[in-house]
Amino acid sequence: MSNPYLGIVKDDLLESFEQVGNLLIDPCVFEERVDGMFGRYFDEALNTIAHKLGVDKNFIKAKFEPIDSYTPKSEQGVFVICAGPDEIAEVTLISFPGCCGIVVSAHAYVLDKYRQLGIGSLLNKLRQQIAKEWGYSILMCTDVENNVPQQKILANNGWDKLKTFVNKRTGNKVCIHTIALQ
Fold first, then answer.
1. Which of 12, 61, 134, 136 could bridge to 75 as Cys pair (CB 3.0-4.6 Å)?
2. Higher-confidence residue: 104 or 15?
3. In whole angstroms, what is the distance from residue 180 CA to residue 150 CA?
């Protein structure tokens, strides 16, 4: 299935890139510690995204925004993938309170016009690699039951659906998923 937005996205990206040209200052810069630790994972993912979008690999960047917490190494934060100045995908990893072996993946998304390109699957692989590198044993996430793209990614990549419940605050059916990090 091809993405109907791909031609538009590529044109938009190239236009944005041309407008800023060589003056583009990358707003998506890793902290030195994170770049050294995760560069190999991001390089592969970013090169794949650039290829799928038909743009130069230097146009696709990533950033990490740490979340201050009680964890000793601040091993939680927001990972963002950017195409030029635009954020196209994001995932947040948060330590599970009360158990240092579990990390929760939250707010994983890919903007609509970048979907159907495999970016969600890359983001899934990336969050697992990072959580494993940080030393977590279990990665957990929740999503609404009608989020079919996320349900497919999780089912196709070995996640276990532990429980489905109705969120009393929103009325949404929510699924809890986990995957063991080996």
1. 134
2. 104
3. 18
In this structure, the strands spanning 86-95 and 102-110 are antiparallel
pLDDT in tens, 58-94: 787 777 777 765 544 556 778 788 887 788 888 888 8
Q: Are 149 and 109 within 8 A, CB to CB? A: no
Q: Per-residue pLDDT tens for 107-152?
A: 888 888 888 888 888 889 888 988 888 889 999 999 999 998 889 9
Task: For tokens 């979008």, name the residue.
Answer: 53
Classified as helix, coil or strand, 109 is strand
Rounded Cα gap, residues 81 and 103, in angstroms: 20
Nearest-angstrom CA–CA distance, 58 and 26: 10
The pair of three-digit structure tokens given for residue 37, joined into one six-digit string: 């630790």
Using an 8 Å Cβ cutoff, are 47 and 83 in contact? Answer: no
Query: What are the φ/ψ torsions at residue 142 (nearest 5 degrees)?
Result: -125, 155
